Amino acid sequence: MDPMKIVERQAEPTPSRILMLVMDGLGDLPRYGDGLTPLAAGSKPHLDLLAKDGCCGRFDPVGPGITPGSGPGHLGLFGYDPTEYEIGRGVLSAVGIDFALRPGDVAARFNFCTLGLDGNISDRRAGRISTEENRRLVARLRQIPVPSGVEIFIETEAEHRGALIVRGDKLGHRLADTDPQRTGVPPLRVKALDAASRPTAKVVAAFVDAARKELATEPLANGILLRGFDSLPKIPSLSERFRLRPACIATYPMYRGLARLVGMAMPPAPPSLAEFPAAVRAAREGHDFLFVHVKYTDKAGEDGDFERKVAVVEEVDRLLPDLIGDGFEVVVVTADHSTPVALKAHSWHPVPGLLWAPGRVFRDPVTVFSETACIGGALGRMPLRFLLAEALAAAGKLAKYGA
C-alpha cells in the first residue's frame, strides 16, 4: 500500500500549525571554481539555524532523473503522487487568475514570444514584458473573430504569461504543446493527440495563425507559444485527505491556482516579498497549514543570474523571523524543483529541504542549509510527497497506526 494512504487514514486535526515555505527552483548545482551554489553562497543565518536545530534531506519531486514542471513539483509538496494526478499548466493558470473554468473547457498557458524574420523563436518570454504590456496585447487578441459555436477567452496572467481557454461542445483537451522550450527553432504546430481533440486543434490552430498576423508589427511580443492543455480535473482536497485547514500566500497566479484546486483558502496576494510576513500573520487565524510561495529564486535561475538568486535567498532569510514569529510548531523549507543557473531551466536534481520542529525531529549533524550539507541529513533522500507526512507527524497530526 502507498504509505500516503496510511497517512490519510491516520490524519487528525490538531491546533498545531505548519508553515511550508517553498522557494521555487531553489535547488542548484555547484559552480566551477569555488563549488558553491546560490544557496550555499548566500548569508542566511536564520535558515542555517533552522537546519542546525532541525533535520535535513534531499527530495525527488517526481522520481530520480525526472525533470518536473511546476505542477507536478507542487503536487508532490502537498503530498500527492504527481504520476497519479496530472494537471495541465493551462488549468492552473486559469484557476489562478480566478477565471470561472467550467467542466469541459480546454485551457492552455501561453507565453508571448519574439519571432525572428525567419519565423524562429529568438526569445520564449518576449523580453519578460510587463503585465501592463501583456494586457494591451491581450486586448488586441480579443478582437480576433472565432468560429460560431465556440468561445475563446484570452486572459493576462503576469508578465509574458497568459491563459487561453476554449469553450464549446465536445472539445477534447489532448493537444500537444506548441512551445519547443528552446530558441532558434520555429513554434511547433498545433497537434491533436487523439480523435476527440481534433476539433479543438482546428480552432486553436486558426487562432494561433490569426494571433501571429495580429501581432506582426509588435517589436517584441509578435507570437504566442502554448503549453499545458487540459480540462478541469477532479482532485481530493487537503482537508479531505489530511484534515488540514490550509491557506496559500503566493503572488503568481499559477501557484495560487494549484493551491485553490487542492482546497486552500486564498487571501489577497501580497504585492511584494517584504509584505509576506504581514500576510502570513493575517492568515494564521483559522488555518493550521500555510503554504508560502516565493517565485523569485526560480526566475533568477531561469535567467542564469547567480548573484540575483543569492540575493533572493538572503532577502527571504532576513524576513524569516517575521514569517515564523511564534505562530508555528513546524516549519518546512524546500523547493518544488531545481532550476540550476548553469542550465537556465528546470532540472532533474533533487531539492534540498529542512524540517524544523523543536523536540520532535531527529537533529542531525547538518549545521548549514545547502544542497551539499543536506546530503548528510537525517531525512536522507526520498520522494518529495513524503516530506508532508514527516511534517504532519512532527505536528502531532497523525494517530498511531495499528495496535
Distance between the termini: 18 Å
Broad CATH class of the largest domain? Alpha Beta
| Percent in strands | 15-25%
CATH superfamily of the largest domain: Alkaline Phosphatase, subunit A
* Main β-sheet, spatial strand arrangement: 8-9-1-10-11-2-12
| Overall pLDDT metric | 95
Percent helix among the residues? 25-40%
Largest sheet: 7 strands, mixed
Q: Stretches where pLDDT falls below 50 for ≥5 residues?
A: none
**What does the overall shape look like?**
globular
Provide the structure class. Answer: alpha/beta
Strand segment count: 12
What name does the CATH topology of the largest domain carry? Alkaline Phosphatase, subunit A
Number of helical runs? 14
Q: What Rg is obtained from the alpha carbons, in whole angstroms?
A: 21 Å
How many domain modules? 2
CATH architectural category of the largest domain: 3-Layer(aba) Sandwich
Describe the 3D structure.
This protein is of the alpha/beta class and 403 residues long. The chain has 2 domains: 3-86 and 236-394, Alkaline Phosphatase, subunit A (3-Layer(aba) Sandwich); 92-230, Alpha-Beta Plaits, CATH 3.30.70. The protein has 14 helices and 12 strands. The chain has helices at residues 3-10, 38-41, 45-53, 70-77, 89-96, 131-141, 198-214, 238-242, 253-261, 276-284, 296-302, 306-324, 371-374, 385-394, and strands spanning 18-23, 55-60, 106-115, 121-123, 151-158, 161-167, 223-230, 246-249, 289-294, 330-334, 351-356, 380-383. The longest helix is centred in the C-terminal third of the chain and has 19 residues, at 306-324. The two termini are 18 Å apart. The relative contact order is 0.25. The model has no long low-confidence stretch (mean pLDDT 95).
